[in-house]
C-alpha cells in the first residue's frame, strides 16, 4: 500500500506540467469526496475523463496522486471570493476583510480581495493545494463586481488584479489557474489563466464570450438540465455548435449538487464513486441560483438548499436549517436579441424587440442585450457595467 502511494506521488510530482487540450473530457465532483480504490490498478470512472475538478480541502493527497497516476489532470476547487464559516481556516479572517453578506445566507460574506490578510489566507490555500499535488486551482466567486451585493466590495479592476495575484502564486508553485464564470474579465486575464470553468453559458447564451479563448485553451462547461440524463433533443441542441456556442467546449450535464453523476454529449453517462466528506459543511450548491426546466418538460430542476456557489458536501450530511433559496441569481446576462434561441431561453422575445425578465441584465457598458424590462419591473443601475430588472 505504502509503495504505490509513494510511486503515485512521484508520478504526480512529475505531472504538474498539465497538458491542457481544447475539448478534453472532464468530470467535476464537489458533493462528497472521490474515493480512491484500494487497488491502484482499478480505474476511477469516468476512466476516459482527462480532467477532474474536486474540492481542495476535502480530497486526500493520495486520491489526487492516484488520479494523476491514471493520467488525469486534477483541478482543486476553493472559494476565493467569499467567506465560508465552515472552512478550517475561517477563523483567520478578520471583520475588516468582509464586505456585504450574501442576502440569503447572512453568515457568508463577500471578501475584500485587496485585503492583505485575505491574500495571505488565499496564498496559504494555494500552498495547501500544491502540497496535495494539485495540477491547477479552480478559485470560485471572483465575480462580486457583477453582483448587487458584491459590487460595493469588489470592483472589476480589483477582480482582475486579484486573479493575476492568485495566478502568480499558483505559477510560483508550479500550478496553473483557471477562471470560474467571471466572463466580463476573461479578456483581461486570459494570459494568466490556463483554462476556464463555466456554469450554464449554454442556458444563458453566454458561451460566445469564449470564442477567441477556446482557440487555444479549454473551457469546461457545466449545464444543469432536468431531467438527467437529458433527452436526445436537449442533448443535441445543447451540444450543437452555433453563433452563441463555439466548437470545442468540454460540456458535462450535472445535477445542481455536483455529485458523482455525469452525462456527456455522446449520450454516455457515469457515476464516480464517492464517500461522505466534512459533516460540518452545509449541503452543496451551484454557482447559479435559478432553476431552469427545459421548455419541453414541466418538471423543475432539483433545487439545492444553498445554490449560489459550488459547495463540497454529501447527501448524508444533515440538512441545513436555512430555507431553500427562492429568488433567482444576480448573475449578469449577456444574451443578445440577435442571437439564436437557446434550448434554455432566458428572455422573452416580443414583437418590436426583446423584453428582459425580472432579475435579467438590462444595461451596462458594451451591453447588447435587451434594455426594456417586463411590465412591473424597472432597469436599475448597479455599476457602469451592470444594470438589472428589479
TrEMBL record:
It comes from Mollisia scopiformis. The lineage of its organism: Eukaryota, Fungi, Dikarya, Ascomycota, Pezizomycotina. Keywords: Signal. This is alpha-galactosidase. Residues 269-350 are annotated as: Disordered. Residues 354-390 form the CBM1 domain. One of its GO terms (cellular component) is extracellular region. Residues 1-17 form the signal peptide. It catalyses: Hydrolysis of terminal, non-reducing alpha-D-galactose residues in alpha-D-galactosides, including galactose oligosaccharides, galactomannans and galactolipids. Its EC number is 3.2.1.22.
Amino acid at each position: 500500500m505504502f509503495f504505490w502511494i509513494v510511486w503515485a506521488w512521484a508520478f504526480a510530482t512529475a505531472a504538474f506540467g498539465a497538458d491542457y487540450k481544447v475539448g478534453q473530457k472532464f468530470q467535476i465532483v464537489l458533493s462528497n469526496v472521490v474515493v480512491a480504490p484500494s487497488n491502484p490498478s482499478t480505474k476511477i470512472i469516468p476512466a476516459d475523463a482527462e480532467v477532474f475538478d474536486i474540492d481542495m480541502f476535502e480530497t486526500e493527497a493520495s486520491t489526487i496522486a492516484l488520479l494523476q497516476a491514471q493520467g488525469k489532470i486534477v483541478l482543486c476547487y476553493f472559494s476565493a471570493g467569499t467567506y465560508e464559516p465552515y472552512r478550517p481556516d475561517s477563523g483567520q479572517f478578520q471583520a475588516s476583510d468582509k464586505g456585504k453578506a450574501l442576502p440569503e445566507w447572512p453568515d457568508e460574506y463577500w471578501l475584500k480581495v485587496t485585503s492583505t490578510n485575505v491574500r495571505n489566507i488565499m496564498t496559504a490555500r494555494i500552498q495547501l493545494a500544491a502540497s496535495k499535488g494539485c495540477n491547477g486551482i479552480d478559485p470560485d466567486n471572483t465575480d462580486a463586481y457583477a453582483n448587487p451585493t458584491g459590487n460595493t466590495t469588489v470592483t472589476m479592476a480589483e477582480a482582475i488584479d486579484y486573479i493575476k495575484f492568485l495566478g502568480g502564486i499558483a505559477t510560483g508553485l508550479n500550478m496553473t489557474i483557471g477562471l470560474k464564470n467571471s466572463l466580463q474579465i476573461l479578456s483581461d486575464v486570459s494570459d494568466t489563466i490556463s483554462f476556464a470553468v463555466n456554469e450554464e453559458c449554454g442556458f444563458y447564451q453566454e458561451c460566445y464570450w469564449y470564442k477567441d479563448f477556446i482557440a487555444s485553451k479549454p473551457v469546461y462547461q457545466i449545464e444543469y438540465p432536468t431531467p438527467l440524463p437529458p433527452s436526445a433533443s436537449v442533448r443535441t441542441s445543447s451540444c450543437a455548435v452555433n453563433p452563441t456556442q463555439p466548437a470545442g467546449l468540454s460540456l458535462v450535464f450535472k445535477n445542481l449538487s455536483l455529485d458523482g453523476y455525469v452525462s456527456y454529449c455522446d449520450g454516455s453517462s457515469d457515476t464516480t464513486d464517492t464517500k461522505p466528506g466534512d459533516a460540518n459543511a452545509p449541503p452543496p450548491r451551484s454557482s447559479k441560483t435559478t432553476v431552469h426546466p427545459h421548455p419541453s418538460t414541466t418538471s423543475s430542476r432539483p433545487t439545492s438548499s444553498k445554490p449560489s456557489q459550488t459547495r463540497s458536501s454529501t447527501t448524508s450530511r444533515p440538512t441545513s436549517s436555512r430555507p431553500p433559496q427562492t429568488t433567482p441569481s444576480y448573475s449578469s446576462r449577456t444574451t443578445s436579441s440577435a442571437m439564436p434561441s437557446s434550448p434554455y431561453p432566458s428572455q422573452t422575445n416580443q414583437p418590436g424587440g426583446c423584453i428582459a425578465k425580472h432579475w435579467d441584465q438590462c444595461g451596462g457598458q458594451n451591453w447588447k442585450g435587451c434594455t426594456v424590462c417586463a411590465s412591473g419591473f424597472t432597469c436599475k443601475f448597479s455599476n457602469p457595467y451592470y444594470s438589472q430588472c428589479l
